């Protein structure tokens, strides 16, 4: 048996994660001030008066816009008195806010009916310090706040499709995933990076698009355009090359199980049974599926993670089975487009991702695996009963890879049978407890009770003050927001990863993937929660 992967991967106790490419965001407002997007003719009209109330205090913001230049003032009952000057960048405005011998940078943009104003303190060298960002939320009290028509252009016919390029759809590549919808010249959607989702919006002009995406550190500009079938997405001087990965459906939409869906027949285009061999079927209750190891492969289960891997006495390499929580093929393909990456592994798709079974897609990958040049065929299986399934990588050295590895991976995918995943009461008792999460200025509390009840609460608070160079207070501000829910919960999976199923008291169902990343630390849909103690469920 070829044991290079076993020695380097399994015995070393290493873990492999999907994705891992890094997207660097632009953070220098000084650079933004000197750069005007060529699509600024679609700029937002910021002119108007705005107010914000918090802690018995009021702030008043007034803005005057002339072309791309803006000016105005920020005053308040706390004694704050500042002037603003800046420029419009796409759908955001950036500049400086100064007064009382102090100055800060600002970044503002509209979200629904509110105007978000971020104040960024400067570093000693005069550049923005993005670790000291304060966000104020204003409501309009008069004028402004509407998207202007293109200069010299009459009102658009809402029934006319125009001549602009269609940017609607799902795109992935270079570690970046973008889901967009388009209505007329307006585009909006979600940018997905490293497990986090960011809102994105902009406008289309001909075969180009421009706009902003919002992160916890502010708004950042982007431009996009097609080169053949490739979407070139540019931000901060870096160009990402994305491929369309499906229809215009939202890859973030959670799919509900269709219990009336017709099961594939024995004569399905993609065979669901392998009749040419006899093998022992293995059932994985936590994933709601069973499978038969491909011919010539022997399956073993990792006692720590519960995951399966396979080796062979005649075929070089290994098959690694990695559970996932994706609900659609679009999500699965987008994840595969990021590749398989860790400190010593860098495997990326070297062929098109294609459908290889009723519930499976597959493609070839190449690169390095545990610092060894390697090649693999990867299949991904999505359950028809809701989110979940697995990816299986049949991997070996570059020199020893053959079509047999592709056939083995596809054979494994087509042996899968699905059933409704069983709720793991033992897992629920193990997960039960009180959890806290603190991210930025947002506090989250999650109570998972052993009796199947839960409660969730979140609160975001913002506050602070302005001071001059002598440390004297020149004003203050503050804001708060909160939310939560309660109901029942279930868990499927194992003590490594799985899915939490929440049903609110209103009957709304929400599925969230979880992963245990350390002692007392769990990721729920990418948000880190820490175990505090036993659940207080009185």
TrEMBL record:
Membrane-spanning parts: 21-42
UniProt entry keywords in alphabetical sequence: Membrane, Transmembrane, Transmembrane helix
Region (Disordered): 250-278
Keyword Transmembrane helix assigned: yes
Basic residues compositional bias, start-end: 253-262
Keyword Membrane: yes
Name the UniProt record assigns to this protein: Uncharacterized protein
């Amino acid at each position: 048996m070829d044991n290079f992967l076993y020695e380097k991967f399994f015995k070393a106790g290493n873990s492999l994660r999907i994705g891992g490419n890094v997207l660097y965001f632009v953070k220098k407002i000084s650079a933004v001030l000197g750069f005007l997007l060529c699509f600024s003719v679609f700029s937002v009209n910021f002119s108007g008066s705005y107010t914000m109330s918090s802690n018995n205090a009021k702030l008043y913001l007034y803005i005057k816009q002339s072309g791309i230049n803006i000016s105005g003032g920020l005053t308040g009952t706390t004694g704050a008195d500042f002037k603003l000057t800046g420029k419009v960048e796409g759908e955001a405005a950036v500049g400086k806010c100064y007064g009382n011998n102090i100055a800060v940078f600002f970044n503002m943009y509209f979200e629904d009916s509110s105007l978000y104003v971020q104040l960024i303190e400067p570093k000693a060298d005069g550049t923005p310090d993005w670790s000291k960002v304060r966000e104020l939320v204003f409501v309009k009290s008069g004028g402004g706040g509407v998207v202007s028509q293109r200069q010299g252009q009459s009102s658009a016919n809402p029934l006319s499709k125009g001549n602009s390029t269609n940017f609607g759809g799902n795109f992935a590549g270079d570690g970046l995933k973008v889901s967009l919808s388009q209505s007329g010249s307006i585009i909006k959607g979600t940018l997905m990076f490293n497990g986090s989702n960011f809102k994105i919006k902009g406008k289309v002009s001909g075969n180009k698009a421009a706009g902003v995406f919002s992160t916890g550190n502010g708004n950042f500009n982007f431009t996009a355009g097609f080169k053949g079938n490739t979407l070139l997405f540019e931000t901060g001087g870096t160009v990402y090359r994305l491929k369309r990965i499906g229809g215009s459906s939202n890859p973030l939409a959670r799919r509900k199980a269709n219990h009336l869906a017709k099961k594939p027949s024995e004569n399905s285009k993609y065979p669901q049974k392998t009749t040419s061999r006899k093998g022992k079927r293995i059932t994985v209750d936590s994933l709601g599926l069973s499978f038969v190891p491909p011919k010539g492969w022997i399956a073993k289960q990792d006692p720590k993670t519960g995951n399966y891997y396979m080796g062979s006495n005649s075929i070089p390499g290994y098959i690694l089975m990695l559970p996932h929580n994706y609900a659609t093929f679009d999500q699965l393909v987008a994840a595969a487009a990021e590749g398989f990456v860790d400190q010593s592994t860098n495997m990326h798709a070297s062929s098109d991702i294609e459908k290889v079974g009723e519930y499976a897609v597959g493609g070839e990958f190449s690169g390095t695996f545990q610092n060894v040049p390697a090649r693999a065929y990867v299949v991904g299986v999505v359950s028809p009963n809701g989110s979940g399934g697995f990816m299986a990588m049949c991997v070996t050295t570059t020199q020893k890879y053959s079509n047999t590895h592709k056939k083995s991976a596809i054979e494994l995918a087509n042996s899968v049978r699905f059933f409704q995943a069983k709720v793991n009461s033992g897992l629920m008792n193990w997960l039960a407890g009180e959890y806290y999460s603190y991210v930025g200025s947002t506090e989250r509390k999650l109570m998972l009770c052993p009796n199947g009840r839960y409660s969730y609460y979140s609160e975001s608070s913002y506050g602070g003050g302005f001071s001059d160079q002598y440390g004297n207070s020149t004003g203050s501000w503050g804001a708060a927001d909160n939310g939560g829910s309660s109901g029942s919960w279930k868990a499927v999976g194992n003590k490594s990863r799985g899915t939490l199923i929440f049903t609110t008291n209103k009957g709304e169902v929400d599925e969230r993937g979880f992963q245990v990343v350390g002692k007392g630390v769990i990721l729920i849909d990418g948000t880190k929660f820490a175990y505090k103690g036993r659940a207080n469920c009185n």
